[in-house]
Amino acid sequence: MAGSALRRRRGTKKASSSHGLLKTILIGILLIGVGLAAGLLAGFFYYSPPDENGNKVTLSPKVLMEQAQHLRHKINNQLHHSNDKLHQSKHDNHADEAKQKRRKAMNVALNAPAQGVSEDSKERKQKFMAYTPKVGGKGNFPYYPNDGALVAEDHDFSSFEAPGGYRFEEYKWGDSPYDYKQGESDDLARSRRVHVRNAMKHAWSNYERYAFGQDELKPISLRGTSTWGRLGITLVDSLDTLWLMGMKEEFNRARDWCKNNLNHNQAADVSVFETTIRSLGGLLAAFDWSQDQVFLDQAKDLGARLFKSFANPTGIPWGRVNLSTGKTSNLGWAPADAITAEFGTLQVEFRTLARWTGKKEYKTKSEEVFHILHDLNPPNGLYPYFVGNMVGSPEFTNQKLTFGAMADSFYEYMLKIWLQGGKTEQFFRDMYDESMQGMFDVLLSVSSPTELVFIADKDNNRMDTKQDHLVCFMGGLLALGAYTDPQGLDSERAQRDLKTAKALTYTCYQTYARMASGISPEFVQFYEGKDFEAGRNGHHYLLRPETVESFFVLYHLTGDPVYREWGWEVFQAIEKHCKVNGGYGGIRDVRSGTPQTDDKMESFFLAETLKYLYLLFDPDTEIDLLNKHVFNTEAHPMRIFPQMDKDGVLDMQ
Q1: Strand, helix or coil for residue 486
Q2: Could you report the per-residue pLDDT of 539-571, keeping only the tens digit for each?
Q3: Which of 3, 19, 612, 634 is the most exposed place for a label (fewest CB within 10 A)?
Q4: Residue 425 appears among annotated catalytic residues
Q5: What are the pLDDT digits (tens) for 516-542?
Q6: Catalytic pick from 240, 269, 342, 408?
Q7: How far is CA 176 from CA 135, 414, 503, in A?
């Protein structure tokens, strides 16, 4: 594939060649030094400078000896210095050789065939890869509830009962079997959109009442908490959601708080990744939509503070930065390593900031990360999630391959950087296509007995048939990659990706539908003969957005009304089980029909989950994924660079 041509291998000359050259140079220096010494001694002996009266002065043997000793010390010092360089060169060459051996061993391990993959599993995968999806031909879409009647404004969500899984099975391998007209479900969607907006009003009003300006709301104990650096994370993360939902009064009050109270000069170590995607991304999107200078001024201040994390000689940024002092470090639980999904998910934000500030280094320095990782040349374009960034050049320090936690959004930004730049920076698209091919070759799996498509992990040469909820963003990403494929949507590659996007999203829907609560767990574990179960120690729900993100993207691109039906089911389950008097909280056990609610409302619930659901049901949105906008990984939509060019936004060049 095209991405293979981008691989660059580094080579070093043999140590013996460089050592021989240095020895020759040292011998030459020694001979020159001896010759100089002999000549100078002869000169001192046969010639001495006249005194002030013009009389010749003959140097005594003692003086001549002192001069000779001084010259000898000088030559010895030069030889020692040269010898030190030789030893350092030997050390560097040995270090390079060791690093090349480690890298080779790592790549061999990463490329080793996975153990624990049954022949039946391989056959199911081959069957799916050869499958050609069906489009249309089965009549009108049959799943509109109540004959398509609109949802009443006083709809009672407490009566919702999860309808169960094993439905819509005709969609499981990427089919779109029914005939539909573009926009035929728009009126129904608008009646549902009202309720998503009401959910945002409920979440926001309680945040404003009990925790305004604090990082998060505790919706049961009705108080705020600030564990993200006292940056008003929920407020800033919610700005563009308020704007897109037309909640302008709430938006303006939040804007005033940003102007008068938001202070990034906090003596706190913050996550560079989380603060960039939530706070910096939130401010940039708020400015992009409102053009209110308050948000850009705050983004400039925060961006400059976060950018200090890039001051790492390895080129891989530090994971934490103190916003007041600028002191940097890695995360406390991974002190020697950087996380691939963290340092690889800063670029959309810093490239945008570069356009609005004229500071080109924001763009170039953040992009350098991708070039460094690409040059590590991992097999199949699949990247382990730990990278050593303490000394020397970066190296992978683990062997786990995943599209879930700690690697996920790195792959997302490969495509989104390319889209943001107007599809002109081919390096990023090639990197994306290579990684997607690696995902198909190594990690894509099909369950039994109902043949659900999922993306497994590979850990130390063993397949782990686990799928995080986080992986469900891949349905939307693959679809977006297919619709923008340089080979065309009708190409074999794009059709493969679109089929898989739909099939994977069906699986993610099933992880909701098959739970008693109608809500998906944090991760599922697949087993031969029984598809999946809620993961051990992973049966909770954190208000995550990835599945409804893919519903939105696939509906936006295809217009298939099934994604709105699945989204409505998920929203009803959230309303019934996650809503409390003071807002929304995650639930502790999705396997229960009456789960207990947690006392924590994540900022991404307002920034992402509710936003994607609203946009799914919003036929009137200005969002245009194919021509105008790119979403950062926290669902903050910003204009792509060609649109900025049309609108006269500052070009750093």
Answers
A1: coil
A2: 999 999 999 999 999 999 999 999 999 999 999
A3: 19
A4: no
A5: 999 999 999 999 999 999 999 999 999
A6: 408
A7: 5, 28, 10
